[in-house]
Amino acid sequence: MAERTVDSAAPARGAARPVVQAEAALVRHYRRLVRLAYVALPADRDRHSRVLAAHSAVQRALPSRWTRRSDPAPGDEDPAYTALRLRVLRDGLRPRPARRLLAPRVWGLRLFTPHGGEQDAALEHALATLDAPARAAFALRVVEGLTAPEAAEVLRHAGVEHAERALDAAADVGAAAGVGAAAGVGAASEPDLSAFDPCAVRVQPTDLLSRRRTLTAVLLVGVLGLTTSAAVLSGTGSRTRTGPVASSTGPAPAPPVAAAAGPARLVRVPADLWQHTARVDFTAWPARGDRREDAALLGRATTAWERPGPQTRAEPGTDTSPPIAPPRLLYAGTVDGAAVVLLYDGQRLARYTDGRGGGLDLARADDSDVTTAGAVVLHRRGTSVRYLLAPWVEAAETRRIDRPETPARPLDHPDGLTPAAPGGVLTDCRGATVLQLRSSSVVAEKHAFLLADLGGLVPAHLTYSPPPDHNQPARAPREATGPDALQAWARAGCAVPDGTPGVKQLNLWAFAVQTLPQNAGSASWVCLRADRWTGEGSAATAVLLPAAQGPQRTGGGPGRSCSRFEQDTLGWAWWRSPQGTEFLLAAGSRRVARLTVKGPDWSTDRPVPDHTLAVERPARTNVQVEGVLDGGTRIGTPGGGPARGAADPRRSLLKQPNRSAP
Questions:
Q1: For a Cys staple, 177 with which of 78, 123, 224, 410, CB 3.0–4.6 Å?
Q2: How many CB atoms lie within 10 A of CB 329?
Q3: pLDDT tens digits for 97-119?
């Protein structure tokens, strides 16, 4: 029969027994409790602090003989463990967990949980967006393997008012990060949380020289304080000692603080880390540049980030606060006569340019990968750009986006730094120059990708989704380096809905191909989507006609159209054939089975096996076009049709894709 915790009415002589039971349960389940605390703690702090905080929360959970006892939450066979788990959760739910003198401390070392893969990185970033109750709910479902009702009851015992809301948020994060919608460790497919285990840590030393300087400074300050105190005590009866003694007892200077806030905090990774880690992103960039040991320059750069001022510039959606973790040094050197420092704190890139006209530029760079962490703009002069390439980039070239048949031109990049390369605005239809990079075979075999400079720190990754094969599932975006992709981007690239700094990825999706009436050739229907680092996005459809002209499109609009979350798309336009006949053209994505056109005094409703429609009309009128999916759901373009008499092919001639409506 299991032992139970002595209740409040028990004699005092038995009060120590529950403490012994709790200690035994804590030792037996220590690793489980520490992992629970680590996942439930805020994910926006550095891993070293979270490791120590998780161990501290579990060790503080051990009650004393004077601790007020409460009924343990149900859901576990061991009531002592259940009570400990409840205390750990309550500690993590505090807005500002109390600091205790007995909490674990580490001097001279940094602790890190093991490196995980892309799924772990995605989960790490997703957890950072949750509040404390939702993180606790996620920990109970994934680490503890509780069912939703069991987790809700534990959360209510821990003081969470809206337990169901927290569980819903945790389930959304679990599904988005690929952890089976927080299915729990009891599920058939147990999630791998090895990167969230604070009991299996890697240890690295802190900056040894900085630590020695700090210790020396502390000892000097201590000696100075003792000397001053002795001087004051010995001189209390003397009338000849006045001002100097009093002034020496004031606040002492604090060089240790300045040193800790300066370049000594910068993290430097081994030059070959990218060859040995599954997390190939900005965290794997080594420190490069001819001034990476310039302490004065690095000090100015770190100070500029820790004390944002008038010369701090941030891309849209980027926080200007000081770094959330010790920054990584990615580059420090002289570029075109200017000293440049590039830092990364796990969420943002900071580019510091020294001297007059310089300053600090900040940009989001979280959740990067092999492609989106492939290059950074170090210096810009007019339309010329100098890039710093990722260490895994084996070959670099430039190519004109509007000349797909022209071979790419090699681009030298000694130590990752390129010479000045031509840029250009992707949206002006005059032809921008993009980067074509090839990864080392250590990372991926025969992997090439395109990046387009949009005026910010990080170029946008260009991808391509080919026309659908109606007998196969929808195709995922692929690299835009093949002949078909280059041709499509050459014709439709300037129709992207968003070509401003902060765009992470631009995808061109050819969702339909239409044979035009009167033997006029064929038209391609595309949807262009821009996704920003903030998670926001916009899309616009366009039609590419046989004539040598730019894409006909609407302006971009916000939403998730043409993304993997909303793959049903419809577009239409008026078109005049070479013989002068007016036609209304319409096309839908692969699940559109019928198309309906309604005019002032006419209508057309017919099945469309090839997902396209061409209706001959004597004149252009206001119409409404709708599509019916194979499941019966209707999608459309409410609000009218294309603008009349658009002579410029770049003017809006299509309706923007709309979200599916039930």
A1: 123
A2: 25
A3: 444 445 576 766 767 676 555 56
